[in-house]
């Protein structure tokens, strides 16, 4: 044991202590950033924004939504997606695309989550709102022109 202790220099100990302290730096930075973020998305509310071919189709308020609402988006070429909003979550329940990836994605509820149906160019994204009222279309079936 003594021969090994002679190999350790004072600078080695300082270096190990310094590296140990620096290893906690990312934790401190992330904690600081998290503490300075807006308190909660619950205060702002969550909205699902549905876009078809890059154009906004509909906004659905998720925060405070109760019950089940379902509507179908039908495009000119006959492609369709059935979207279901149940309580505070949204999902694509049926689609006429071949791969069904959008259906298998399941329900989304958190800010930043998305569902994408590439064959139909449909995107559903959950975003935070700032309290403004969102326009909701009450049409069950709407034809989208390209």
Structure description:
This protein has helices spanning 2-7, 10-22, 25-35, 41-44, 101-104; strands at residues 46-52, 55-61, 68-75, 80-86, 89-95, 114-117, 122-128, 141-144. With 146 residues, it is of the alpha+beta class. The strands form 2 sheets. It has a 4-stranded antiparallel sheet with strand order 2-1-7-6. Strands 5-4-3-8 form a 4-stranded mixed sheet. The longest helix is centred in the first third of the chain and has 13 residues, at 10-22.
- Which strand-content bin applies to the residues? 25-35%
* Low-pLDDT ranges: 131-143
Q: What gap, in angstroms, lies between the N and C termini?
A: 78 Å
Structural class: alpha+beta
Evaluate the radius of gyration.
25 Å
Mean pLDDT score: 84
User: The biggest beta sheet, please?
Assistant: 4 strands, antiparallel
The share of residues in helices is: 25-40%
* Count of helix runs: 5
The helix/strand series, from N terminus to C terminus, equals: HHHHEEEEEHEEE
What would you call the quaternary organization?
single chain
Strand tally is 8
User: Strand order across the biggest sheet?
Assistant: 2-1-7-6
Q: Give the CA-based shape.
A: elongated
């Amino acid at each position: 044991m003594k021969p090994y202790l002679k190999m350790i220099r004072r600078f080695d100990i300082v270096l190990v202590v310094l590296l140990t302290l620096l290893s906690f730096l990312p934790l401190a930075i992330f904690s600081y950033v998290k503490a300075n973020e807006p308190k909660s998305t619950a205060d702002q509310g969550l909205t699902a924004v549905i876009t078809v071919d890059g154009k906004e189709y509909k906004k659905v308020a998720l925060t405070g939504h109760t019950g089940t609402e379902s509507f179908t988006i039908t495009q000119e070429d006959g492609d369709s997606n059935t979207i279901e909003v149940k309580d505070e979550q949204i999902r694509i329940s049926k689609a006429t695309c071949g791969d069904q990836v959008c259906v298998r994605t399941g329900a989304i509820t958190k800010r930043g989550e998305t569902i994408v149906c590439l064959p139909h160019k449909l995107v559903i994204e959950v975003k935070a709102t700032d309290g403004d009222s969102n326009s909701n279309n009450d049409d069950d079936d709407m034809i989208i022109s390209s």
